[in-house]
Amino acid sequence: MSISVIANHHISPEIVDLIANAKKKVDLVSPYVKLWPHLENEIGSALKRGVKIQLFFISDKREEYEDYLLRLAMMSVAVYQIDLLHAKVYLSESIGIASSMNLYDFSAQRNEDIAAVSSDPGFVRSLDDYVQKLSENRARSISSSLKGQKAIKAVGGVLKAVAGAVAGAVTAAVFERVGFCIRCKAEIDYNPDKPLCPDCYGKWKKYGDPTYKEKYCHDCGKPSRASLAKPVCRKCYKASV
């Protein structure tokens, strides 16, 4: 069995190469996940080649990673969460890496890490057996729920937009509603706070008596002993409450 031992900044290029050379599958087991651009690009390229990719991360980080994990799920990466995950394994059908390094850009740049890398069939098979047991016994698939949450957010956005449009239409209808001057019956915007046309208001303002009896209902325009204080007739008032 031939195994290479590498450390620190030599590890991340090996992971990238593993993905770039994969033909059938890639398993990424890492409690903490924050992919750097080069690695994410290789994942995208592998998926386009038909490579099946699985990502396993620690359950505690689901909420923190949600947007990021959703992006991977939408790329067709199968995403799984595992309680108490501590192992770091990176595996294709032909190469295996067992490491102390998380799939995290900070780890790739700063931490002291070590990894065992091998294409030995026995080594690869052992790691594959381990990942299979994780998948069958400990892992919970969350790809569908992540996509479902995106759909719910999208529907919520549509409903919010529809509600806004309806509210806007109702508001516009209120402000475009026709009313009548309570003194001369000229058509004006419906506004119980301003039930007189500009000309009649100028005349009313000379005395400024809000209880002075006028001639018409501001709402229906029918004859009524309306006033600035009570600009609509009894029938229209009852219909509005």
Q: How would you explain this protein's 3D organization?
A:
The chain has 241 residues and is α/β, with parallel strands linked by helices. The chain folds into 2 domains: 4-141, 2-Layer Sandwich (Endonuclease, Chain A); 177-240, no CATH class. 44% of the residues lie in helices and 19% in strands. It has 8 helices and 12 strands. The chain has helices at 11-21, 37-48, 62-74, 105-109, 121-138, 143-176, 198-204, 234-240, and strands at 4-7, 25-29, 33-34, 52-58, 78-82, 89-92, 96-99, 103-104, 114-118, 140-141, 178-180, 187-189. Strands 1-9-7-6-2-4-5-10 form an 8-stranded mixed beta sheet, sandwiched between helices. It has a two-stranded parallel sheet with strand order 3-8. A two-stranded antiparallel ribbon has the order 11-12. Helix 1 (11-21) packs parallel to helix 2 (37-48) and helix 3 (62-74) packs across helix 6 (143-176). The radius of gyration is 35 Å and the shape is rod-shaped. The chain starts with a strand and ends with a helix.
SSE layout and pairing:
Blueprint: E1 4-7, H1 11-21, E2 25-29, E3 33-34, H2 37-48, E4 52-58, H3 62-74, E5 78-82, E6 89-92, E7 96-99, E8 103-104, H4 105-109, E9 114-118, H5 121-138, E10 140-141, H6 143-176, E11 178-180, E12 187-189, H7 198-204, H8 234-240
Parallel strand pairs: 2-4, 3-8, 4-5
Antiparallel strand pairs: 1-9, 2-6, 5-10, 6-7, 7-9, 11-12
Helix pairs in contact: 1-2, 3-6
Strand fraction: 15-25%
CATH superfamily of the largest domain: Endonuclease Chain A
Low-confidence stretches: none
CA-based shape: rod-shaped
The percent range for helix content is: 40-55%
CATH topological fold name of the largest domain: Endonuclease, Chain A
User: How many DSSP E strands?
Assistant: 12
